[in-house]
Amino acid sequence: MMTGAGRWSVAVVGLLAVAGASTACRRPPPPTDVVLVTLDTTRRDHLGAYGYAGASTPELDRFAYGSDLYTRAYASSSWTIPSHASMLTGLYPSDHGARLRSVAGPEAPVAMLRPEVTTLAEHLHAHGYATGAFIGAPLLDSRFGLDQGFDVYDDDFRGEGAAVGRQADELTARAVAWLQVQHDRPIFLFVNYFDAHKPYRPSEPCRVRHEVDDPNPLARARALYDAEICFMDGHFGALLDALAHAGRLDAAVVAVVADHGEAFGEHGEHSHGKSLIEPLIRVPLLVKQPRQRRGRRREELFEARRLFELLLDEAGVPRPLVSSAPAVINDGLVSELMVGLGAGRRAPLRTVIVWPWKLVRPPEGEPQLFDLGSDPGEHRNLWGQPGHEAGARLDAKLTTWLTARASGVEDAAPAAMDPSMEKRLRALGYVF
Ligand SMILES: [Zn+2]
User: Fold this and answer.
1) Could you say which of 3.40.50.300, 2.40.330.10, 3.40.720.10, 3.90.1150.10 is the CATH number of the domain covering 33-315?
2) Distance (Å) from CA 138 to ligand 1 centroid
3) Using CA atoms, how far apart are residues 284 and 75, in angstroms rounded to an integer?
4) What is the pLDDT of residues 113-142, one digit of tens each?
5) Rounded-to-integer distance, Cα 202 and Cα 224, Å
6) Ligand 1 centre from 93 Cα, in Å?
7) Residue ranges of the chain that CATH labels 3.30.1120
8) Residues 132, 75: Cα–Cα separation, whole Å
9) Confidence class of residue 183 from pLDDT cuts 50, 70 and 90?
């Protein structure tokens, strides 16, 4: 497949040839618009496009019909800040630094995205793009540093109810208003929809559709979650309509991805950000390439952090020479999470996946090994079992991966926190 960079090079060579042969003036094709939509906390198995019978996601499903649908896409972490920072920089959490800090004490527990890192927005902006971000998650507040490179970073959480996240209708309206005044430059539009995150406040039509009054608490939570996804889906569709109306949708590259999922009782979990189990890190990912007409299933492993380079390639913008993390494990991927060790201490939990094997290495104690092909629910730990030497092979790969980036694991500077932000994070269930 010819990459976006390849197409751009051909266009430039063609232009030079014409200019040399005659005085005719042919303009190169306009640069490709880039759209990144993150569906915060949205599980792949709660979308119709991924086979969920109870879904009310017609807009996402329709978009999927004309896109690449990735079946083995993985987030680089299982909560909002490190996962988004990885997609926006191409780096692993231990390299970009935006994660929980490893030290206990009075300082803020969340580290900022390293200012010296080049983000996707900074890079596209340097290549002439207008850059706009419309943020639903309080955890993506600009104080955590993910606003680097955006002309507009719309993260106003002062409105009624907005302290626990802004809703999809407001975000789409703000994004569309921004879109309507962009005329002269290609755009990079980033929208973070937060509706699927607790606390659930679904709109009436979606509440009715999903019968959210089930007396069983788990069934009720799932129904409320689906109702929130239903609401988000409609406003995602309105965003696509606005892009189409502006004449930008067909030629744009559009990526739709979750930053992580949500657990509903799997392995005793009822949220996210506490482990790296499959419902949390295996995420939906849809990518519509410019002028793509037909959908395709993509079965290969894909790290969501690689959206950084995929979007640059599709836009025909050269990648920075030294930016995204090297792929030390060419046939697999890594996801990371800082976990508590007691007394305020934290250290990284990591997983490496080389399909179908998944090795989980905790900060202390023995690793675990699962065969995701035959055991997608991760119930049978095969570590140390005869005939499952894949465990030692993946463990060695992870050690090689760690050795290659040993210099990058210092904590970045703590983000500025104040009582209102701490209160907001606690309201969302983030108790550090
Ligand atoms: Zn999130």
Assistant:
1) 3.40.720.10
2) 10
3) 9
4) 888 889 999 999 999 999 999 999 998 999
5) 7
6) 14
7) 333-404
8) 23
9) very high
